[in-house]
Amino acid sequence: MNPRRLLLLLVLALPVLVVTFAVLAGASFLAAALGDAPAAAALKWVAMGALIVLVIDAILLLAVLGIRAAREDEDQR
Predict the structure, then answer these.
(1) pLDDT tens string 28-72
(2) Domain hosting residue 47, numbered range
(3) Would the CA dihedral through 19, 21, 22, 27 be positive or negative?
(4) How many structural domains is the chain composed of?
(5) Which of 5, 11, 50, 55 is the most buried (most CB within 10 A)?
(6) Strands (DSSP E) along 1-76, which ranges?
(7) How many other C-beta atoms can be found within 10 angstroms of the C-beta atom of residue 76?
(8) Number of neighbours of residue 2 by Cβ within 10 angstroms
């Protein structure tokens, strides 16, 4: 995969994952407030999964940006 395309994908996925986590967490709290414990538990686990993917995306974005900066520094020398 093209590094530029990978960077674009990671950047665009970050806000989508943040919103996904926020919506799922809110839905989990709402289900818990309405007394639907099984739905709240399921939504909580799905929200945690989205949070894990969000953290992985942020780490990969940091790594790709670091590699890109190192390559640009190498090209300038």
Answers:
(1) 999 999 999 999 999 999 999 999 999 999 999 999 998 888 888
(2) 3-76
(3) positive
(4) 1
(5) 50
(6) none
(7) 6
(8) 8
